[in-house]
Design a protein that fits this description.
By secondary structure, the protein is an alpha/beta fold. The protein contains 16 helices and 14 strands. Bound molecules: pyridoxal-5'-phosphate (PLP).
């Protein structure tokens, strides 16, 4: 596959042109990464008015993902989430969202002054992950005017929502289906595509940097509906820097080449290795239901403290994506080699031998939707103070304070913090909260 952005940058960097333009590093004598980092010079196109090399690269992405349009983001899925929600605001839609959203959603809700209607999932892996009830979804969509539905799938633990069923319900209520697929850019290239766009979503974002070989901050915004094309680009430009990084865009361009030429083979071997790894530890560990590249260990249920297991893994040369007392998430990608899996298997074996065994416990989060006192925007922009969690009962949650990762809200801004929130805050090691004064 052609790589128009990369080719342009390489040609320019070797041309010896005197850079009387931004950025100020001037290419620093041709050194990486500066040599390929430029601004919107002649021929380099411009992300938010793309009609040259960037548009060509985006069209390649669109072709690879089978979308009506795909856009590059140098601001991660965060920017894509802002853009898709802004597009819904343009249409005057009410956002119905499944609660285990990432903080990026809550911040966008504050910026756009959204009146979010929540659906509580049946939380099965702490606050990180839950099963979405189709009945609850249908009820929520039926209860509002001009709805759209926002779901996170895969969620932080890799759990996939039933996108085809949700898409079918959405169609009945004329509701666009928006999917935060930050963790699922690779799903398109499974033997049978599990990507939200293939399964019926209208708009979704993929953090290419999470699951594909792309630089941090690189993401795709996709839509299956041609009519959203222009508005999504416009909405992205509302929030984005006017100087999107060419290095990040170049990494998306090179990622296209990887997707076209190599990922299917890598996914095939990755799936085999993941199956073997899970099988090898199946008598010692319980794994959460997830897409295969998220290895989510139910540590507490397996008789281990998740944080202790993560520390032992670190000692044995493996840094995990996330741990809490009940869970350890090891994130692999199609790029991982057989040698990586061999090392991971060895480190897991060693860490489990060294770990202290605890009684097996099943951590379930009993969560009731907190009462709402004001809008997300009002709460975020109100004067606030930080207080110890134990003193927060009855106070209104101000700015969102969630550990990042995983950045899932326990109380959202504008909600009244109750006893159940306090207990969950403590479980996740959060000792202070920001409340409205
Ligand atoms: C579920 C989910 N959505 C959105 C985001 C934001 O993505 P990005 O970091 O690409 O902006 C994250 C980041 O961790 C995430 O886990």
């Amino acid at each position: 596959m052609e790589t128009p952005i990369y080719d342009f940058l390489k040609k320019y960097s070797s041309s010896g042109t005197l850079r009387c333009h931004m950025p100020g590093h001037k290419g620093i004598g041709g050194e990486l990464p500066y040599d390929l980092d430029i601004t919107e010079i002649t021929g380099a196109d411009s992300l938010f008015e793309a009609d040259g090399i960037i548009l060509r690269a985006e069209k390649n992405t669109s072709h690879l993902y089978g979308t009506a349009a795909s856009f590059f983001s140098a601001g991660g899925s965060t920017l894509c989430i802002q853009a898709m929600l802004a597009a819904m605001k343009f249409q005057g839609r009410t956002v119905v969202a499944v609660r285990n959203v990432h903080r990026a959603f809550l911040n966008a809700a504050a910026l756009l002054d959204l009146d979010v209607r929540w659906i509580l999932p049946d939380y099965t892996d702490g606050i990180l992950s839950g099963r979405i009830s189709l009945e609850d979804t249908e009820k929520a969509l039926a209860s509002v005017n001009k709805p759209c539905l926002y779901v996170t799938s895969p969620d932080y633990t890799g759990r996939l929502a039933d996108i085809p069923a949700l898409a079918e319900i959405c169609r009945r209520y004329g509701a666009p289906l928006l999917v935060d697929n930050a963790h699922g850019a690779h799903l398109r290239f499974f033997p049978e595509s599990l990507h939200p766009i293939s399964l019926g979503a209208d708009i979704c974002c993929d953090s290419a940097h999470k699951m594909l070989p792309a630089l941090t901050g690189a993401a795709f915004l996709h839509t299956s509906r041609a009519e959203y094309g222009a508005v999504l680009r416009q909405c992205m430009s509302l929030f984005a820097s006017t100087s999107p990084s060419y290095l990040i865009m170049c990494s998306l361009d090179l990622c296209n080449k990887y997707l076209a030429e190599k990922i299917s083979v890598d996914i095939g071997s990755g799936l085999e290795r993941l199956k073997k790894l899970r099988g090898r530890f199946s008598d010692r560990l319980f794994f959460a239901e997830s897409e295969p590249f998220h290895i989510t260990v139910r540590a507490a249920e397996s008789g281990y403290d998740g944080n202790e297991l993560a520390a032992l893994l670190r000692k044995n040369g493996v840094e995990c994506e996330y741990s809490d007392c009940g869970t350890v998430i090891l994130l692999m990608s199609p790029v991982n080699t057989g040698e990586d899996f061999r090392r991971l298997g060895g480190a897991l074996e060693k860490s489990l031998d060294e770990a202290e065994k605890h009684p097996r416990t099943l951590i379930r989060t009993a969560f009731v939707l907190p009462e709402r006192a004001m809008s997300v925007r009002e709460a975020v922009f109100s004067p606030s103070e930080e207080i110890p969690v134990d003193e927060a009962e009855g106070r209104i949650c101000g700015a969102v304070k969630v550990p990042c990762p995983p950045a899932v809200p326990i109380a959202a801004s504008g909600e009244i913090i109750d006893r159940s929130c306090i207990n969950i805050f403590k479980t996740y090691g959060i000792s202070s909260v920001i409340v409205v004064k």
